[in-house]
Amino acid sequence: MKLFFISDIHGSLYYLNKAIEAFHMEKAAQIVILGDALYHGPRNPLPKDYNPKEVASILNSLKGKIIAVRGNCDSEVDQMVIEYPMMADYSFILCNNRRIFLTHGHIFNVDNPPKLTGNDVLVHGHTHIPVAEKTKDFYLINPGSISLPKENNPNTYGILENNKFKIKDFQGNIVKSIILE
Fold first, then answer.
1. Which residues, in sequence order, are bridge partners of residue 93?
2. CA 82: distance to chain centroid?
3. Helix-helix angle 13-26:52-61, to 10 degrees
4. For residue 172, with 0-12 CB atoms within 10 Å meaning exposed, 13-18 middle and 19 or more buried, which class applies?
5. Ranges of the chain whose pLDDT falls below 70
6. Residue pair 139/133 in contact by the 8 Å Cβ criterion
7. Of 137, 90, 100, whose CA–CA distance to 117 is shortest?
8. CA 147/CA 49 separation, integer angstroms
């Protein structure tokens, strides 16, 4: 199964539409949203085409294909307009005999990891910086941000297929990748 990962939409209709185009182009089965869907947060600039109401509408149209966790900019009022569960601080999925721990990154991250083993994967957003690496204890993945990338990175999303995680920009270029052995 092919999984599509996005994080840090921050209410950008423009970049959500780009991500949904990429999701369909990639022919992925599910969209994993790693938090910060609607609100831009007080530390961030307004993203391009900031329209949380329309972002919610588009995401709701795909609710059967979404697995989501709460980001630090997501609130209970957001859950009132979102039609899929999105308020958990973390979630697990099992894929190819490994646990994939999904979280936003403001609670669990490389400096405060959950209890994982060598084959497990910690996937989070929050930093807006793409990462694909093996630590001594687990794999660490961050697909970056689709709307507000940092440190001169491009707008990115992630794809997991056949134990290979690729982080791509919207032109289809691979920014980072890792094989989950």
1. 100
2. 16
3. 20
4. exposed
5. none
6. yes
7. 137
8. 10
The tokens describing 98, both together, are 């490994």
SS3 track for the chain: CCEEEECCCCCEHHHHHHHHHHHHHHCCCEEEECCCCCCCCCCCCCCCCECHHHHHHHHHHCHHHEEECCCCCCCHHHHCCCCCCCCCCEEEEEECCEEEEEECCCCCECCECCCCCCCCEEECCCCCCCEEEECCCCEEEECCCCCCCCCCCCCEEEEEECCEEEEEECCCCEEEEEECC
Domain 3-179 has CATH 3.60.21.10: yes
- Per residue in 133-158, pLDDT tens? 999 999 999 999 999 999 999 999 99
Residue-wise pLDDT for 22-33, tens only, equals 999 999 999 999
pTM for the full model? 0.97
Strand partners, 165: 160, 178
Q: Using alpha carbons only, how large is the chain's radius of gyration in Å?
A: 15
What pLDDT is recorded for position 97? 86
